[in-house]
Write a structure and sequence with these properties.
- 55% of the residues lie in helices and 4% in strands.
- With 337 residues, it is mostly helical.
- The chain has a domain of 104 residues.
- Strands 1-2-3 form a 3-stranded parallel sheet.
- α1 crosses α2, α3 crosses α7 and α10 crosses α13.
């Protein structure tokens, strides 16, 4: 992910080892562009954060004849999924307020009406009109492939990629899916984020501890906890359809290839609740597990910081090194006199 964020030009400034990530990106780009394999494939959702200038840069590095494949899903459920991911990056805003803010930031035609932060506003990032205009300009609209699986078909994307790469049915879901936290546990994490932020907690520490170290255990907890789905309210489904209808028009007027039915990106608003009830209680068992995950991550992060810090303990140095340093300081003092 960090290699892809480097390629997209959106790697957060606080991440360490930026030179190492840049070197990995340079190596990957060279391997990709120079590959003599029948088919070379690189997948990362983080590439979608690239802006126009960076997209052209990617075309220059990877080859303008590269095919760009996007897997698509309806906007309202996609935004709910993104909100849950934002909670894992110290998000503090309630679901409906977060949804309203993102809809207000971008018009259906792709016009951004707020100063775009990095990464770009979520809806602008997912806009098919933007994809056609920006990625199509750099790689050619004819090299864009948009994949729309049928609702409920969890294996459709696998079959499409197998066909694109010319391989038999070899792809299967991972042993541990990228499960999201149930709504009560997600709200508890948001409350924790608010408390951490209110007392002046810094973002890099949170990302290293909770966003990185704790992430696997949070995923395990999501698989064990009592299911409690998170859904968008009806108004968000209706607004999502308005945006999607405009995007479908842009795709149909382009030279992009569509695998599947674009109408599957539209949802039935009546299938969404008019009002989303936010849970105010969480089970004692999972609350205890969440506290343990956060505590263990904080301890681990503290240990890593101590290990990385230069030591002032003389016992960490050998006697020969100490004697050499003493002699050096004596010579320097004699020279000064």
């Amino acid at each position: 992910m960090k290699t892809a964020l480097t390629a997209a030009g959106t790697l957060p400034a606080f991440w360490p080892d930026r030179d190492r990530h840049a070197a990995r990106w340079d190596e990957l780009a060279a391997d990709f562009a120079g590959s003599e394999a029948r088919c070379t494939f690189w997948s990362s959702e983080s590439l979608s954060q690239a802006g126009p200038a960076r997209i052209q840069y990617l075309a220059d590095r990877l080859g303008a004849d590269t095919r760009i494949v996007l897997t698509l899903r309806p906007l309202a459920p996609l935004l709910v999924s993104q909100w849950q991911e934002v909670l894992r990056r110290r998000g503090t805003v309630p679901l409906e307020e977060w949804l309203a803010g993102h809809f207000d930031a971008v018009r259906p035609d792709g016009t951004v009406v707020v100063d775009p932060p990095l990464p770009m506003p979520q809806i602008h990032r997912f806009s098919l009109r933007r994809v056609i205009a920006e990625w199509g300009a750099a790689f050619g609209e004819e090299n864009l492939v948009l994949v729309v699986p049928a609702p409920g078909d969890r294996r459709g994307n696998f079959r499409v990629f197998e066909a694109l790469m010319g391989v038999p049915e070899v792809l299967a879901p991972p042993a541990m899916d990228n499960a999201s936290l149930p709504f009560p546990e997600a709200e508890m994490l948001r409350a924790f984020n608010n408390a951490y932020t209110a007392r002046g907690g810094d973002h890099p520490t949170w990302m290293f501890a909770m966003g990185t170290i704790a992430r696997p255990r949070l995923r395990e907890l999501a698989g064990r906890a009592t299911p409690y789905g998170i859904t968008a309210p009806r108004w968000a489904a209706e607004r999502g359809n308005d945006y999607t209808a405009d995007w479908i028009t842009a795709v149909r007027e382009s030279d992009a290839t569509v695998v599947g039915d674009l109408d599957h990106l539209l949802v039935d608003p009546d299938a969404f609740p008019e009002r989303v009830e936010v849970p105010g209680n969480v089970s004692v068992e999972t609350a205890g597990q969440l506290i343990d995950i956060a505590f263990a991550a904080a301890l681990d992060q503290g240990r890593r910081q101590r290990d990385a810090a230069p030591s002032d303990d003389l016992s960490a140095h050998g006697s020969r090194d100490l004697a050499r340093e003493v002699a050096r300081r004596v010579r320097r003092r004699v020279t000064r006199r």
